[in-house]
Design goal:
With about 400 residues, the protein is α+β, with helices and mostly antiparallel strands. It has 8 helices and 22 strands.
Length: about 400
């Protein structure tokens, strides 16, 4: 669940329903939001508060988690073939923990319970990036005499003329852009009431890789030419080039894609063509041989764009964005439906996530199982959510 802009791996919810499992003597199914999970018979009744711990999680070694030792304390999607049921995540009573749990729906207790991502790569990719990095001439602007000059218009102009515009040197994901946010669409299980929304949605295939954000900002113009600041970001952090940050991993997919697709040059061309815009952003999924197990069987890294934003329009309708990506010879996620209507039955909706990828994101191959779908609301392009295939997660061991 997305809480305060980031994914919560554990949150307080209410049990929506309890159902028996035919043939089972000591376990039953419980529903939490749109999730289905296994619990001990009699552990919950409808309306009880619980802590729901999502898949992709690893819990600490505690007394309350001892029953998960054989699973190495990891929470995954499970299929119980004997009973023909799928369980995702776990629901636990609020009174079993060694800390007090607030009985308030939607409360994030991830940090309180010391829960982390089960995959170390996810932990690294999805961390917030706490460190700061100073680069180039930015230290000049920290001097007392520079600060004195910057308080005066003529001094500011002089500083920009001599030293250039100061750069944003934080490793944190930039938050100063009004319409740009981290790429984390909500899972449909966390918003089951979404099926009541009968506005048409655009349905695209969900590529399985690592998300990237590319932003070009028009900074204050110098006396001779316009200046720009280029932001290359992972899901949660800004990534600087290797020659500016010695801590950048040698397998830097983000800058590799920036160079492969000439993204900075293309975004600059867009800003020159749209002079009222202060910034433009492309977001996409990087997929390749060494990323997320390479489910699309790719032989090289690709960037599949899924969102476009600028300072004037905000978030683009993906159909309009695709016209720009095609013009700039960018790859993008396949659009499967321009006006998809959500069904009424949640289980039937979940089953639609199964299937294979379009060959356009698999270098021509047609037998690659699909991770799922992403849905964009036609009446509000900034709203999206995803439906991930349970069978896909089981095969990947997630």
């Amino acid at each position: 669940m997305i809480i305060d802009g980031k994914r919560s791996l554990a949150h307080v919810e209410k049990v929506a329903w309890v159902k028996p499992i035919e043939g089972a003597d000591n376990i039953e199914l419980v529903g939490v939001l749109g999730w289905v999970c296994i619990a001990k018979i009699g552990e919950f009744k409808e309306g009880d508060h619980c802590v729901y711990i999502e898949i992709d999680s690893k819990v600490p070694e505690k007394e309350w988690s001892e029953f998960l030792r054989k699973k190495h304390f990891k929470i995954k999607t499970m299929k119980l073939g004997k009973f023909n049921v799928i369980s995702q995540g776990i629901a636990l009573p609020v009174d079993i923990f060694d800390v007090d749990i607030p009985e308030q729906e939607g409360t994030d207790v991830t940090e309180l319970l010391e829960i982390k991502y089960s995959n170390p790569d996810d932990q690294r990719r999805k961390s917030d990036g706490q460190n700061e990095l100073k680069v180039g001439l930015n230290d000049i602007f920290e001097n007392s005499w520079a600060k004195w000059l910057m308080k005066r218009q003529w001094g500011e102009d002089l500083m920009f003329y001599v030293f250039g515009t100061p750069k944003d040197v934080s490793k944190r994901f930039p938050t100063k852009f009004k319409y740009i946010s981290k790429t984390e669409p909500e899972r449909c299980e966390n918003i089951p009431s979404i099926l009541d929304d009968k506005a048409p949605f655009i349905r695209t295939q969900k590529c399985d890789g690592t998300s990237a954000t590319y932003i070009l900002e028009k900074t204050k113009s110098g006396f001779l030419k316009s200046e720009y600041e280029f932001y290359v970001c992972s899901r949660n952090m800004r990534i600087f080039p290797k020659d500016e940050d010695p801590l950048v991993d040698s397998s830097d997919y983000y800058w590799e894609m920036a160079e492969k697709y000439e993204i900075e040059e293309k975004l600059e061309d867009y800003l020159k063509q749209n002079k009222d815009c202060e910034y433009v952003c492309w977001q996409g999924e990087i997929c390749g041989p060494k990323i997320q197990g390479n489910p699309q069987k790719l032989t090289e890294n690709h960037l599949f764009c899924f969102q476009m934003i600028d300072s004037e329009k905000g978030v683009f309708d993906i159909r309009e964005a695709k016209r720009y990506w095609d013009e700039y010879e960018m790859e993008s996620v396949p659009i499967e439906s321009m006006a998809y209507l959500l069904p009424n039955d949640f289980e039937a909706f979940k089953n639609t996530a199964d299937g294979n990828y379009d060959s356009s994101v698999c270098e021509g191959q047609t037998d690659c199982p699909r991770e799922g779908w992403v849905y964009y609301k036609t009446t509000d392009p900034s709203f999206s959510f995803k439906n991930i295939s349970r069978n896909y997660l089981i095969k990947k061991g997630e």
